[in-house]
Design brief:
Largest sheet: 4 strands, antiparallel
CATH superfamily of the largest domain: Immunoglobulins
Radius of gyration: 27 Å
Number of domains: 2
Strand order of the largest sheet: 1-2-6-5
Shape: flat
CATH architecture of the largest domain: Sandwich
Oligomer: single chain
Strand content: 25-35%
CATH topology of the largest domain: Immunoglobulin-like
Length: 175
């Protein structure tokens, strides 16, 4: 899911900066309108949230400053949601910016401490045991990283072979 955040456009588009924070079904939307010197008086913005199921929720945005807007919504939307900023325009609406908003990780995946109860249960099932420190782990025969290898020369050799293969292929008219 996080791949969508990296591949989808995130810089301001058309002088608008859009931020959508999500916690489960709760959305917090912030918009900065940097379209200077246009007047922002009388502009009406809303955010359309659409999950894969296609059920759209429209969140009206209220003006919080000269060129800033904000909105909140508590929804039952699940999964990846398409968020489209729209503006009321001559009896209709026009889309301005869109973002994909992935679902946040569930709380159990966001814990930073180990679940010792689960680890003990796994150790009991598999016949293993938990150790408290690294020295005890090493004394029991455990190892960390076994071997580090510098792959630079192998990669350079691969590049050279591919380069020579392409040269020979072009010379013979095969590529």
């Amino acid at each position: 899911m996080r791949l969508l955040q990296y591949t989808h456009r995130s810089e301001p588009i058309d002088h608008y900066a859009l931020t959508v924070h999500r916690e489960g079904g709760a959305f917090e939307i912030r918009v900065a309108d940097n379209s200077f010197p246009e007047s922002t008086e009388g502009r009406t913005f809303a955010m359309r949230l659409t999950p894969l199921s296609g059920t759209t929720v429209e969140v009206p945005l209220e003006r919080t400053g000269v060129r800033s807007y904000r909105g909140e919504a508590e929804t039952d939307l699940e999964g990846v949601v398409s968020a489209v900023l729209v503006e009321a325009f001559r009896g209709g609406v026009r889309p301005i910016i869109s973002r994909y908003v992935p679902d946040a990780y569930a709380r159990e995946f966001r814990e930073l401490t180990p679940r010792l109860d689960k680890l003990e249960q796994i150790a009991r099932i598999t016949g293993g045991r938990l150790v408290d420190n690294l020295e005890e782990f090493r004394a029991a025969g455990g190892t960390g990283v076994r071997d580090e290898r510098d792959l630079t020369w192998w990669l350079l050799a691969l590049v050279l072979v591919l380069f020579l293969t392409e040269l020979v292929g072009r010379a013979l008219g095969r590529l």
